[in-house]
Predict the structure.
Amino acid sequence: MPTPLDSLPDYRKLAREVKARFERIRQRPVILSVRNLEKSFGAEMHTALDHVSLEIHRREFICVIGPSGCGKSTLIRIIAGLDQATSGEVLLDGKAVTGPGPDRGMVFQGYTLFPWRTVKANVMFGLEMRGKDKSTAEIEARQWLDMVGLGKFENSYPHELSGGMKQRVAIARALANEPRILIMDEPFAALDAQTRCQMQNYLLQIWRKVDVTILFITHDLEEAAYLSDRILVMGANPGRVVEFIDNPVPRPRNVAQFVSPEFLALKLRLEELIHPPMEIEEERLPMVKLTNAGDDVE
Ligand SMILES: Nc1ncnc2c1ncn2[C@@H]1O[C@H](COP(=O)(O)OP(=O)(O)O)[C@@H](O)[C@H]1O
Ligand SMILES: [Mg+2]
């Protein structure tokens, strides 16, 4: 006799599948290794990063979350070679990072396209800098623009594009240099909710097709749960690694998963880590009576 419970997913099976998926991921080569990274700022030596260590495997999609000021941007600026650590080291493919390089692509929240260059010329920029001749650079730039669905806009200028389209050009420009790792610092934070959702789907599609590892900072817990293989949770004062969580949500991802028990369980765990329960001491709240209407609330 079938019961209503028969239609529930088999969570033992899902747990086994998740475990097997992460065993496969951990067998891939380590692409990025951060060892005992420390960063202090200013005369008071404010500790922005305290003994941060982590390893990322080839083609992993890693999201980084944590309260404002916990050192997310500092961490990826050091990985990008834009900033120097006080001590510790970053290895990319086993080689120490000492400065910026084409093996790391960057996409930031602010739009960083060259306004005087067309969309195509923006994507060609890095290719030409690396010594590719103009016609090769042009062919490759077109391929990357097709990949982000902007082939028709190659001759437009950045000011003619929407925010989402500009970020797609920025992604094409970063990927055109064939980086080993794509580093993104809150790239969709300035976009409206609907565009952000489209961009997340674009990014997942691109990541599936391109041999690239992604390190993606966000303050949006749902975004982290939707995109990532693993989520690096950081804490503040001092900036440090709190937890590195295996994301149990199966791939391929779709919006229906936003209400799945595994998605909600992950989100709850992230909430607990990022926003520990607030303790409000009732007697210390100001005794201001603004209205009599609220006498019934509990
Ligand atoms: N160039 C700098 N000079 C001094 N302090 C800095 C500098 N950059 C970052 N900090 C400090 O380091 C801490 C981490 O900053 P940041 O990496 O930007 O955090 P997040 O990106 O997580 O919000 C903050 O306390 C910030 O004030
Ligand atoms: Mg930041």
